[in-house]
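Continued from yesterday's entry.
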Amino acid sequence: MCLAIPMRVVEVDGLNATCEAKGVERTVSLFMMQHETVAPGDMVMVHVGYALQKMTEAEARSTWELYDQILEQEDAPRA
């Protein structure tokens, strides 16, 4: 299964952006979104180092809520 991670754009430098999620910063390629305007504060879905699309703050929050639920299940003791 492949997952894309919602990240907030912190800084844009050409076709690269510094993005942050849950306190972790990464350099992300904007190559796949080169025909869109991406600016600091935008939320993007990131997969294997590439921003794939913009998303709203609500979509990002909802996605992180689902991921957090998955992680809670992984940490739960098994009967």
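--- second protein ---
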Amino acid sequence: MDINTDAVDEVVLALLYLNLCGENRAWKSFDWDALNRLHDKGLIGDPVNRAKSVWLTDEGLGEAERMFTKYFVRAGD
């Protein structure tokens, strides 16, 4: 199976937005490969640490909101 990892990353980022606690932290209970790719893209802090959450960069927070709207907001809302 040829998985579109870009699409996976977009949805994980959107779900991180849904999962925000505070201004820019979200629980990191997602696929480690996806989290590492998001970190490599500069959208989140390094997920490899003892914390149970990860922080979104300013760019990541904006992109997460955009992806959340793209995938989960109904037209007209």
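The chain has a mean pLDDT of 94. The longest helix spans residues 58-72. Will compare against the first tomorrow.
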